[in-house]
Amino acid sequence: MDFTRYIRDVPDFPQEGIIFKDITPLLGTPEAFRATIDTFADYYRDQNIDVVVGIDARGFIFAAGLAYQLGVGLVPVRKSGKLPYKTIEESYDLEYGSNTLAIHQDAIAPGASVVICDDVIATGGTLTATVNLVEKLGGQVASIAALIELTFLNGRRHLIDYDIYSLIEF
């Protein structure tokens, strides 16, 4: 399936000069959304994944479907202050600001094989912070899954030691 047909460009969002890749047309098209989750699941099905980590907020959408298909647990990584239990945190810069992510301190068993899932790989800051959180808990990052990779931002340069599986490149 040509997933790019379901991605809408929104110029100057969230600030002037940014072209936001809107995934809501893909989410709203049942066959495209189903094909997205099925494609991810086909890639990871035989990799002995223990848990899928979803990044706040759009990463949750794909991570939940993938975890369900693989029959494994789902772990949310959220913005600071959003998780109710004891957390560890990691701060990072992104293309138009900075942020801090948190994960429950007991969310991942040491040695667990983890897929980290997000909607977009941009500069790599969010994913690098999430990799650091997973590894601080003793998890082993088996792969990073993303619907879209913005190759012109070269986020991969921060993630060269990890398998990356993206369905769309812009």
Which secondary structure elements does this structure contain, and how are they paired or packed?
Layout: E1 8-11, E2 19-22, H1 24-27, H2 30-44, E3 51-55, H3 58-70, E4 73-79, E5 87-94, E6 97-104, E7 113-121, H4 125-136, E8 140-149, E9 164-169
Parallel strand pairs: 3-4, 3-7, 7-8, 8-9
Antiparallel strand pairs: 1-2, 4-6, 5-6
Estimate percent helicity: 25-40%
Strand content: 35-45%
Which residue ranges are poorly predicted, with pLDDT under 50 across at least 5 consecutive positions? none
Coarse structural class: alpha/beta
Number of domains: 1
- CATH architecture heading: 3-Layer(aba) Sandwich
Average the pLDDT over all residues and give the rounded result: 96
Q: How many β-strand stretches?
A: 9
* CATH topology value: Rossmann fold
Structural write-up:
The strands form two sheets. The protein has a seven-stranded mixed β-sheet, sandwiched between helices. 26% of the residues lie in helices and 36% in strands. The radius of gyration is 15 Å and the shape is globular. With 170 residues, the chain is an alpha/beta fold. The chain has a single domain, classed as Rossmann fold (3-Layer(aba) Sandwich). Helix 2 packs across helix 3. The protein has four helices and nine strands; from the N terminus they run ββααβαββββαββ.
